[in-house]
Structure formats: structure tokens, C-alpha cells
Amino acid sequence: MSTPTPPSSPTPPSPDEVPRSINPLTVWVPIIVIVCGIVIGWNYMLHQIKKEREESAGMVEQRLPMLSRLEKNIGFVERNGQKVELAALKGKIIVACWVYTHCPRGCSGVVGELLSLHNDLEANPDVHFLSVSVDPADGPEELSKFAEGLKIKGDNWWFVNGETKEVRSYMTRYFGFQGVQDVPEKDRLSPDDKYIHDMKVALVDHKGHVRGMYDVASFDPEFKAFWKDKIRKDIGTLLKDKAEDEGKNGK
User: What pLDDT, in 10s, does the model give residues 15-74?
Assistant: First the structure.
């Protein structure tokens, strides 16, 4: 008789065959991340929709751009004959333009619009007007007659001139005005028609940043009305910013 073979003991499963338990975190963490992403995305979308609706309704003041910065000082001669420094206007809102006392191309229209603005803001010491002559022949006497002819009063409007090349370079590089062009004699409308210059008005904040260029004397009545309204609103915005900054600094 043969001896019966004893039953073999079961072979233990290999490590690869052992079922692995699932870590709950591997399930819930991705779910939580996805849910948070959906919530954040949804709220961002609602915020953007609300913001766009408020902007379109004029309920939110859009931040003015920073076009350039008056990084460097420059000296001028004012219409009273005194030397002045642009740095002396640090901390003020500056409304700047080119001027040309014999300009036949609309310069008086720009200054006329600024005069209206000046009259509105005359009592505000935080706003200063600056008209820089494009013509080397505009000395203190010519600039004084021009200002007196428009009955411009107060010390918060400088009519200045300076060294031609330096002044033109500064106005173009730092204020952002277009370059001045000399008009050839054959193309002149009159003997005084010597220069073509930018007719826009630059607005500078109390930190020396140029925040806008305004075509307040546009030949298009609708554009003209738009820019006249906008520069008044933007000056109000910059005055508010200045007051807030001074409040933070305890002034």
C-alpha cells in the first residue's frame, strides 16, 4: 500500500496579488480641489460680470493710465521775467500745453478752453496751468501781452519759454507731445505761420506722472465736448488721489 500524500499547505499570495487598501485622501483631495476650483471660478466670473456692468453704467472710476513721467527738472523764464523751475510744481496737478502767441492754426482755441477750465479751478491751489511757448521769439513781454489779452489772472498759470532745443526735447520726451515742425515758407498760411505743434493738453498728477492727453479744441464738436468733460472728471480723480495720498502720509 502506498502512503497517502499529505495535503499541501496553501501558497501565500505574492505582494503583487495582495489587494491594496485605498487611501481616502487620494479620493477626497482631488474632489475638494475640483470643487474649490469651480467655486473660485464661479465667483470670479460673477465679479467680472458685476464689474463690467458697473463700468458700463459709469459706477466705477477707471484708473487713469500712466503715459510717461517727468523724471527730470527743467528751467524756464516766466512771463514776469523770473526764472522758474518745473520742480517747484512738485505735488501739484499740472495742466500743460504748447502756446504760440501769433499762432494762426488754433492755438488761441486751446488756451481759450484752458481759460474756461482755469476759471472753474482758480480757487484750487493744487492745480497749476503751464503754457510753454514753441516760438523762440515769445519772450516775457509777448507772453505777458498774450495772457493779459485773455484776462488771465492769478499766479497758478505760468506762461514760459526757454532754450528752444532743450524745451522742445523735454516737452516731447517727458510730457509726450508730438514733435514741433517748422513750416517751410512756401507752405505758410501767413508770415506768422511758422510752426506746427501738438494742440493737445497734458494732465500730470501730483507724483509727476502724465495721466492723459486731451484734444479739448478738437474741430469735431462731439469730440471736443467729450474731451472737455473728460479732463474735468480726470482732474477731479487726480485731486482725490492726491488727497488720499496726503491723508495716508498724515499731511
Answer: 666 666 767 777 778 888 888 888 888 788 777 766 666 655 555 567 899 999 999 999
Q: What pLDDT is stored for residue 207 in this prediction?
A: 95
The sign one gets for the Cα dihedral 120, 66, 208, 181 is negative
- Residue whose C-alpha cell is 521769439: 137
- Residue 35, helix vs strand vs coil: helix
Query: Over the stretch 177-199, which tens digit does the pLDDT of each residue have?
Result: 998 888 888 888 887 788 888 88
The pLDDT of 154-162, averaged and rounded, is 91
Q: How many CB atoms lie within 10 A of CB 10?
A: 6
143 phi/psi in degrees, rounded to 5: -70, -35
Tell me how crowded residue 207 is: count the other CB atoms within 10 A of its CB.
15
Indicate the length of the chain as a whole number. Answer: 251
C-alpha cell at 39: 467655486
Residue pair 122/156 in contact (Cβ under 8 Å)? The answer is yes
Q: Give the 3-state secondary structure of 222-235.
A: HHHHHHHHHHHHHH
Contact residues for 195 (Cβ-Cβ < 8 A; gap 6+): 100, 103, 134, 135, 180, 181, 182, 183
Question: 87: which residues sit within 8 A by CB, 6+ positions away?
Answer: 73
pLDDT in tens, 91-130: 999 999 998 888 777 777 888 899 999 988 877 899 999 9
Query: Using CA atoms, how far apart are residues 95 and 76, in angstroms rounded to an integer?
Result: 16
